[in-house]
Amino acid sequence: MRLRLNPPEVMAVINVSPESFYQGSVKSSEAELVNFADKALKAGVRVFDVGGMSTAPFKRTWVPEDVETSRLKWAVGILRREFGDKVIISVDTFRPRVASEVARLGIDIINDVTGLRYDKSLGGVAREHGLAMILCARERTQSTLNPVDAVINEARWSINTAESMGVYDLVIDPCIGFPPLDRDQNLEPNRQVAKKRYDDWPYRDIYVLANILRIRRELGRPICVGVSRKGFIRELLGVNMEESIWGTLSLHAYLAYVNVDLIRAHDAVETLQAVKMIDMVKSCGGDYSSCIETIRKAYKGGA
After folding, report:
1. 9-276 is classed in which CATH architecture?
2. Cα dist from 98 to 75, 240, 254, whole Å
3. Is the dihedral of CA 209, 298, 47, 41 positive or negative?
4. Cα distances (Å, whole numbers) of residue 32 to 77, 90, 112, 277
5. I want to staple 265 with a disulfide (CB 3.0 to 4.6 A). Which of 35, 72, 198, 271 is the partner?
């Protein structure tokens, strides 16, 4: 598959993992799953990222491979049956056997939060099935590099590794909110870690976001950003999970303004509204009549 995005594109999060950090994203019944996807699709969302095991750091969320596989096959099967090729399906997994099993049902993207650090053979699964990959640019251990340089450095490793396996359809995720791999208990459930976060974690995430265009420019790759309801928003604003939607949508509006390729969102419909409004404003920098014509052509509500 050659992934063709229309930046800024919204990717809706669907979790079928009860242990996920944001319970509002969890779909536990077929009706709930179909209703969410149908509403998002009608609003203009095409890309859906399905998770069968929470990859949120700092929580013990590890489940056996057969459990993750079963959950993903259930959700992907429903999405393909109900919506066919209207949807682009990503699966959020770093385990090759899981991805291989689910790929048989017809997925388009593997979203690997380890950037092929957990198991390089995941790249072989992507090549075999002709899938695109979203690769998280994530340090193995905390370095002394500037945070943006660290993202670029790790992304280059992931890109080179994927390309060496024959996978070229790649999107890079700066991995906002994730710790270095050696501090993530989710990747080795029986391992104890003394320290989990980066020392400067909330400021680090903001700094990376402020320099997101530099990251895309230096890597020459599409960029996917996931900030939705993450801990740095709650930490910096002093809000709880439910209240974090406003900080989330503000950052999504910023990402839309700078034209990031893919915005990963729990609140996908609301995010798409922000994206559309930003697009309308950016389209109206010329004369007034052109502004009106552009909006009317692009949006049904532009009467």
Report:
1. Alpha-Beta Barrel (3.20)
2. 14, 33, 35
3. positive
4. 14, 19, 26, 28
5. 271
pTM: 0.92
DSSP H or E segment with residue 47: strand 47-51
Query: Could you say which DSSP state residue 185 is in?
Result: G
User: Which residue type, as a one-letter code, is found at position 285?
Assistant: G
Cβ-contact 151, 212 below 8 angstroms: no
List pLDDT tens digits, range 115-146: 999 999 999 999 999 999 999 999 988 889 99
The two structure tokens encoding residue 248:
């989330």
Question: How many DSSP H helices and E strands does the chain contain?
Answer: 11, 8
> Residue 55 burial by CB count (10 A; 0-12/13-18/19+): exposed, middle or buried?
buried
pLDDT of residue 182: 82
Q: Is the pLDDT of residue 302 over 50?
A: no
Q: How far is CA 36 from CA 39, 127, 209, 231, 299, in A?
A: 5, 31, 28, 24, 22
CB-based burial, 181-214: b 16+ in 10 Å, e otherwise: bebbbbbeeeeeeeeebbeebbebbbebbebbee
Question: Residue for token digits 């530099």?
Answer: 214
DSSP annotation of 26: B
Closest to 115 measured CA to CA, from 65, 155, 145:
155
Are 141 and 180 in contact, with CB atoms under 8 Å apart? yes
Instruction: Order across the sheet with 9-15: list the strands.
Output: 170-173, 132-136, 109-112, 88-92, 47-51, 9-15, 262-265, 224-226
- Burial classification of residue 64, based on how many CB atoms lie within 10 Å of its CB (0-12 exposed, 13-18 middle, 19 or more buried): exposed
Cα 42–chain centre separation: 20
Q: pLDDT of 22-53, one tens digit each?
A: 666 677 799 999 999 999 999 999 999 999 99
